[in-house]
C-alpha cells in the first residue's frame, strides 16, 4: 500500500509559528505548551501579559521559540499590533488557534446586556478579527496554514439557561464552515477545523457561575476533560496529511450525559 501524498505528522510544522489566543491558562496554556514540545514556535496572547509570559517561560526557558504578547481580541488595533509583533519576531503565523472565549450564566429573560455583549465580542467578533488578520498573513506568504477554532459542545445543542453563550458557539460552528467554503473558492492551501469540548476543568466554570464553590461541584460530578486532552486533539488535527482536513472534533467526558 502506497504512502499518502504530502507531508504529515507534526514534523510538517516543526519550526513553524502558532499564534494562540487566550494562552494564559486552561486550554490555551496547554496548547501552547504542547506545540512548543512538538518543535513549533509559539506566540501566546492574552489580556494579561504577565500570565501568558509565565506560561511560556515555563515551557520555553530560553525564550528563543516563544513570544508573549498582550492582546485583547475585542480590540481590533490590539490584535493588529499582536500580529505585527509575531511577524517582526518570527516572520509570520502559520497556525492560528482561536481559543479565547468566555461565558456568563446570563439568561435571555434576566441577563445583563454587558455580559451578552462581552460574549459576542470575545467569542464571535474577536475570533473573526484574529482569523482575518491570520489569513492575510498566511496569504502574503503563499497561502498555506491551518486555523483551528476552539468551540464548545454548547454549539452543537442548547444547554438550559445558556442561550446567549450557546448562540455564540453556534456562530463559531457556522463561521468554521463559512471559512472552509471561502478558502476552497479562493484555492488556498489553508485548512480549517473546529474542536468542541464538553466539560473541561479550567477557570471557565467559576467565571460562568461567578462561584468557585459551584464550579468545584460541577467538576466533581464525574471525571471531566483536562486541558491537555484538548491540546491532544489540536495536535491530531494538525498532524493529518495535507490532503486531509478534519473539520469537526466533538469530545465529551465519557460520563457526561448531555
Salient structural properties:
258 residues; alpha/beta; 7-stranded parallel β-sheet; 45% helix; 7 strands; disordered N terminus; single chain
Give a written overview of the molecule:
This protein is an alpha/beta fold. It has a single domain (10-246), classed as NAD(P)-binding Rossmann-like Domain (Rossmann fold, 3-Layer(aba) Sandwich). It is 45% helix and 15% strand. The protein contains 8 helices and 7 strands. It has a 7-stranded parallel beta sheet, with helices on both faces. Helix 5 links the parallel strand 5 and strand 6. Helix 3 (76-90) packs parallel to helix 4.
Q: What order do the strands of the largest sheet run in, or round the barrel if closed?
A: 3-2-1-4-5-6-7
CATH superfamily: NAD(P)-binding Rossmann-like Domain
Query: What is the tally of helical segments?
Result: 8
Counting helices, strands and paired strands, the structural category is: alpha/beta
CATH-scheme architecture: 3-Layer(aba) Sandwich
Shape: globular
Number of separate structural domains: 1
Chain-averaged pLDDT: 93
Short description:
With 258 residues, the protein is an alpha/beta fold.
Topology:
Layout: E1 17-20, H1 26-37, E2 41-46, H2 49-59, E3 66-70, H3 76-90, E4 95-98, H4 113-140, E5 144-150, H5 163-186, E6 189-197, H6 204-209, H7 212-219, H8 227-239, E7 248-251
Parallel strand pairs: 1-2, 1-4, 2-3, 4-5, 5-6, 6-7
Helix pairs in contact: 1-2, 1-8, 3-4, 4-5
